[in-house]
Sequence to fold (41 residues):
Amino acid sequence: MRPMLLAFLAIAVITAGAWYGLERAGFSSSERLSGDAVRLN
Fold:
């Protein structure tokens, strides 16, 4: 049971780290799919 809980914790940490890292690197969908000619409301 303990290894499974540690695996779930590792998945959560990796997911949160990837989300934060990609967001800081500028890979959000709004930054990737819009250009200067696009006005987002």
Q: What stands out?
A: The chain has a mean pLDDT of 83. The first helix runs from residue 2 to 25. DSSP finds two helices and no strands in the chain.
